[in-house]
Amino acid sequence: MRSRGSQTSARSVALASMLLAFGACLGYAESVLLPPLPVPGVRLGLANLAVVVTLATLGSTYALVVSLGRVLIVSFAAGSLGGPAFAMSLAGALAAWSVMSLLARKEGIFSPVGWSVAGSAAHVIAQLLLAAWLVGSQAPLAMTPLSLLASVPTGLVIGYSARLLVSRIPQTTLAFGR
């Protein structure tokens, strides 16, 4: 007979795997189907929905795995693995995860909506800093105000969507997640 600890682990891994697949599908669909927003380089960040849901249900370690996993899978599927687009996606994902994880520790102060908005802004800043470094010019940083302005509504959409999804996950599933 299995111990409760192995059930917890198996359920957590299964939920994280489903969220990783969900995030990878959303990320790939967004990269090939949806046109970019009017601000160059800014997208909705649909794949981050899986990361925010993972953070809310399973915690920051699983959220990091989902975040990095979906970047690798989407980059591989889109043919950008190892290129500048991959590096920028990875930098943005790590920055967003870092900020969202810090805010998630402040229970009762920030909700998944707040995490998402802050993560979206961190993602944009990390990508612009890396772009400036890659091209050897501060020119990409000129897009910071407009990119940050665009990150707020996209972060709100992802955050509210994550909150809705988390509210629909059965509590019995969540009880094993943490």
Structural key phrases:
178 residues, mainly alpha, Arp2/3 complex 21 kDa subunit ARPC3, globular
Description:
This protein has 178 residues and is mainly α. The protein has one domain: Arp2/3 complex 21 kDa subunit ARPC3, CATH 1.10.1760. Helices cover 76% and strands 0% of the residues. It is built from seven helices and no strands. The longest helix has 30 residues, at 4-33. Mean pLDDT is 86; it is low at 1-6.
* Uncertain regions spanning at least 5 consecutive residues: 1-6
Counting DSSP H or I runs of 4 or more residues, the number of helices is 7
Strand tally = 0
Q: What oligomeric state best describes the polypeptide chains here?
A: single chain
CATH class: Mainly Alpha
Q: What is the total domain count?
A: 1
Briefly note the CATH topology name: Arp2/3 complex 21 kDa subunit ARPC3
Layout of strands and helices, then pairs:
Layout: H1 4-33, H2 48-57, H3 60-78, H4 84-104, H5 112-135, H6 144-168, H7 171-177
